[in-house]
Write a structure and sequence with these properties.
The complex is a heterodimer of chains A (about 500) and B (about 160). Chain A contains 20 helices and two strands. Chain A is mostly helical and about 500 residues long. In chain A, about 60% of the residues are buried. Chain B is mostly helical and about 160 residues long. Chain B contains five helices and no strands. Classes of the chains: A mainly alpha (about 500), B mainly alpha (about 160). Chains A and B meet through α1 of A and α4 of B.
């Protein structure tokens, strides 16, 4: 290993240990406001660090860190490339926007004496999600996967509705199955190759790919991560988890957790097995495309029939995961770019949508379509934000959803998969139906009698919602920055590390 | 509570200090022989759990309140992570124990000792917290306060 390769960038480790050490500080503070202040300061610092890292990655290509001074592959190596930094940016930006929003929302939804624990859990979840993206070690990735999962089970169970407990328990069972499958896969790879370092595994893989052990490992890894990703038909835990979780938690998890799982899937297919042509030797493409299409259509159809708007958006998330996986499955430069940029775009859109719904719940307690009649006039700013997010889900031009779908349709055409291009467009029409259902109820129906004239949420919640919506509109109309990032990431995945 | 079982109480009284001592031995001897923070933490917690089983959870909560076990949980993580931060401040990488002392051997020794101490603290705190959580409906989240309110089933019988 050359000397230049072995330099460690301390910002990389700070990205993980700042939120990790802030969590116990929150527990010791035992004060709701104190914990919130710590969490917000941490989220903003982490966002600043990720911008700094983005700069370095653009400059140098790959940023590394040797934990404990041990060289890779013996020690744990943190390794951030253009794919990882994009996901780090998504996670930290969403956290930075959601924390100011969370203050009032959490005060209303969570028992006062539990709030400091809530922020400790949120910070641990952030630690886990960031850790997954920066680590270059397959086992370390499992540890962070468990940190983020365990904390998200707790976050979901803190919802006001008692059904949040069963939803969290169900997610616990499914999530643990997913994590167990992942670790079985890693165990099998370790037994064959004797290494846990992802870059090291990648170089050894071509020599051992024709063994049944490695085939089994591949199966365990992909199925395990598909569970965490909520890829159809392994999505059953998601709708209830998102429906009954506190508003801020749903917004945070919906825009980060599944994206990070998609990142792991990318890493498995294109980095771990990057030197092996998986798509040639396994029917990976037809399987993934079928799952993605099933998600896009069946989950969108389910969304149309939902009465509960949170649940509707949860099903919509499953459909949107379909688009991300579709991009991954096409495995071309354009397809991957589409899949990767949709991770970012969907995070913005779904973050805005869930924050807006959270605001409606905060202000009126309304969460079903019937309860939301005429809400457009009572909460004009919040509902305007929701409508813009809805347009993003459909993929209307000037919203980020359009950019993603344009990329995906182009990718399908490049591959001469015309029916696929048509199906992408057709599935967008299903989004029109469920977004229209909310719009119709909110704007075209009169408010029930006796409803207050105006119930807009406080500025501390409205501002973050609109920051997210304006960011979505910006990256929908001027996608040069995000497209470049996604394209660089796609190139890096296609061409290896 | 087993007030009427003198044998158990006497044996427990004899055993608990020994268990605590053994936990400390496993903790501090962990870098020379079998043992370490996790095992020590569990053994340490076992002493308190045995105490609760014999003398009652209420008495145990007076000996070591839930707020203290929670702080132990957090402190352990801070000791572990803090060791890493200190190594960074001393010019090494995160958790690079070599820089902690004058010699590499001394540094590794001190580093492992500190980190294992953090693990032991957190594990002991976690075991006792889990035990307390399952052993009674007490709200442990409230900020520091004098008495925990133990919710016991109604003593009024079934309405006669």
């Amino acid at each position: 290993m050359s000397g230049a390769e072995m330099t460690s960038d301390p910002w990389l480790i700070l990205l993980v240990i700042v939120p990790l050490l802030a969590a116990p500080v929150c527990v010791l503070l035992r004060s709701a406001t104190g914990a919130w202040s710590v969490a917000t300061a941490v989220a903003w610092s982490v966002f600043a660090i990720s911008l700094k890292l983005l700069d370095t990655v653009m400059d140098q290509g790959v940023v590394r860190y040797r934990i404990g001074g041990w060289d890779a592959p013996w020690g744990i190596e943190y390794r951030l490339d253009s794919v990882g930094v994009f996901v780090v940016l998504i996670v930290s930006a969403i956290a930075a926007v959601i924390l100011p929003y969370a203050k009032r929302s959490v005060e209303k939804e969570i028992r006062k004496d539990r709030i400091y624990l809530f922020y400790a859990m949120l910070l641990l979840c952030l630690t886990g999600l960031l850790g997954i993206t920066v680590t270059g070690d397959a086992f370390n990735l499992f540890v962070f996967l468990e940190i983020s999962s365990l904390s998200s089970y707790v976050l979901i169970s803190l919802g006001t509705d008692r059904r949040a407990l069963t939803a969290a328990f169900r997610y616990l069972i499914m999530g643990t199955l997913g994590a167990t499958f992942y670790i079985i896969g890693v165990g099998l790879l370790y037994q064959t190759t004797g290494t846990l370092n992802i870059a090291d595994l990648k170089t050894i893989m071509p020599a051992v790919i024709d063994t049944r052990t490695v085939h089994a490992a591949l199966a365990f890894l992909t199925v395990g991560i598909s569970l965490k990703l909520a890829l159809f038909p392994l999505h059953m835990w998601l709708p209830n988890a998102y429906t009954f979780a506190p508003g801020a938690v749903t917004a945070f998890l919906a825009s980060t957790a599944t994206k990070v799982s998609a990142y792991i899937l990318l890493r498995i297919i294109f980095t771990l097995f990057g030197d092996v042509d998986l798509f040639a030797s396994f029917p990976l493409q037809p399987i993934l495309i079928t799952m993605a299409l099933a998600a896009m259509f069946l989950a969108s159809l389910s969304a149309i029939w939902q009465e509960n708007v949170k649940r509707m958006m949860a099903y919509s998330s499953i459909a949107q995961i379909g688009y991300i996986v579709l991009g991954i499955a096409m495995a071309t430069e354009t397809g991957l770019t589409g899949g990767i940029i949709h991770m970012f775009n969907h995070a913005l859109i779904k973050g805005s949508a869930f924050m807006a719904i959270g605001a409606v719940v905060f202000s009126t307690g309304a969460v079903t379509l019937t309860q939301m009649e005429g809400i457009g006039k009572r909460m004009p700013y919040t509902m305007a934000a929701f409508v813009i997010a809805g347009l993003g889900l459909i993929g209307v031009p000037l919203t980020p959803g359009f950019i993603s779908k344009w990329q995906l349709v182009t990718a399908a055409m490049e591959l001469n998969m015309w029916p696929l291009a048509a199906l992408i467009l057709l599935s967008s029409l299903l989004a029109v139906i469920y977004v229209w259902r909310v719009f119709e109820v909110a704007y075209l129906r009169p408010a029930p009698e006796g409803a207050p004239a105006a119930q807009e949420v406080p500025l501390s919640m409205l501002l973050p919602i609109w920051v997210m919506v304006l960011a979505a509109l910006y990256f929908g109309s001027n996608a040069t920055f995000t497209l470049n990032l996604a394209h660089t990431a796609a190139l890096q995945l296609m061409g290896g590390l | 509570m087993m007030t009427e079982k003198p044998l158990l109480r006497v044996v427990a009284k004899l055993l608990i200090p020994l268990i605590l001592l053994f936990a400390l031995y496993v903790q501090f001897h962990g870098d020379f022989g079998p043992g370490g923070g996790f095992q020590a933490g569990v053994i340490f917690a076992v002493a308190f759990i045995l105490y609760s089983l014999i003398y009652g959870v209420r008495v145990a909560r007076q000996a070591i309140p839930a707020s203290a076990t929670r702080s132990m949980l957090a402190f352990g993580v801070l000791i572990y992570g803090g060791t890493g931060v200190v190594t960074m401040l001393m010019g090494g990488e995160f958790l690079d124990y070599n820089v902690l002392a004058a010699t590499v051997h001394g540094g590794q020794h001190l580093g492992v000792f500190l980190v294992e101490f953090g693990v032991g603290t957190t594990v002991a705190g976690a075991m006792i917290t889990i035990f307390y959580t399952f052993s009674g409906h007490v709200n442990d989240n409230l900020p520091f306060r004098k008495h925990n309110h133990v919710v016991t089933p109604s003593k009024k019988g079934d309405g006669h």
